[in-house]
Design a protein that fits this description.
Length: 71
C-alpha cells in the first residue's frame, strides 16, 4: 500500500511532527506483529504502537505551553 492508501484508512488527520513541524510518514505497518509506526523524516523520531488509532493519538498529542512564573 502507498502512503496515501494508509492515510485513507483512518479519518484522523496527522499533525506535523511535534518536534520540527515536518509532515510524518507511515513507516512500516507490520501486520504480523501488529505494529504501526509514524516517522518524521527530518528529525528521525519514530512513534510505534499496537493500534493505528493509538499511534495517531500519541503523534497528534500536544502539550499546551504555559507561561513561566516571573522569577
Amino acid at each position: 500500500l502507498s502512503q496515501i492508501d494508509l492515510n485513507m484508512k483512518d479519518n484522523t488527520p496527522l499533525l506535523p511532527c511535534p518536534f520540527c513541524g515536518t509532515e510524518p510518514i507511515w513507516f512500516g505497518e507490520i501486520i504480523k506483529n501488529s505494529q504501526y509506526s509514524l516517522k518524521c523524516i527530518e528529525c528521525q523520531i519514530i512513534m510505534t504502537d499496537d493500534r493505528r488509532d493509538k499511534v495517531v493519538g500519541r503523534w497528534n498529542r500536544r502539550v499546551e505551553s504555559k507561561e513561566l512564573p516571573p522569577k
